[in-house]
Amino acid sequence: MDCGGQKRNQFQHTQCRPTLKLVFCSDRPSTGETSRVETSFLSMTLNNDTGNLNSRVIDGSCHSFLLDDLDIDSLLKFLTEFEAHDTQSAALLEACLDRT
């Protein structure tokens, strides 16, 4: 699979969207806590204070790439692959796509 021609980068951050800010972000003091979920193909870490989401491909042809580094065509190909092989990864990718 073409991985969008992007180089592998360190984790990048995604800012909270206004509608998600109410759910994931707050004005509380920072606690430094994160939530992490991992499936067969994806690893995602949510910063509970800021709502920043880091999403990394951990298996497949774009192994070690961040979802932020992949173009929409590559993400949609992954979604098709995930739907056929791992519904948890597909659901996680869909949730990530909904945030953008």
Description:
Helix 2 runs antiparallel to helix 3 (87-99). The model is unreliable at 6-26 (pLDDT under 50). The protein contains three helices and three strands. With 100 residues, it is of the alpha+beta class. Strands 1-2-3 form a three-stranded antiparallel sheet, covered by helices on one side. It has one domain.
Helical content band: 25-40%
Give the helices and strands as they follow along the chain: HEEEHH
What are the low-pLDDT stretches, counting only 5+ consecutive residues below 50? Answer: 6-26
Mean pLDDT: 76
Q: Class by helix and strand content? A: alpha+beta
Share in β-strands:
15-25%
Q: What is the assembly state of the chains in this entry?
A: single chain
Largest sheet: 3 strands, antiparallel
- Compute the gyration radius: what is it? 14 Å
Number of helices: 3
Strand ordering within the main sheet: 1-2-3
Give the overall shape: globular
Distance between the termini: 22 Å
Q: Tell me how many strands there are.
A: 3
Q: What number of domains?
A: 1
Indicate the topology.
Elements: H1 18-24, E1 34-38, E2 42-47, E3 53-57, H2 72-85, H3 87-99
Antiparallel strand pairs: 1-2, 2-3
Helix pairs in contact: 2-3
Features:
100 residues, 34% helix, alpha+beta, three-stranded antiparallel beta sheet
Q: How do you describe this structure in short?
A:
Helix content is 34%, strand content 16%.
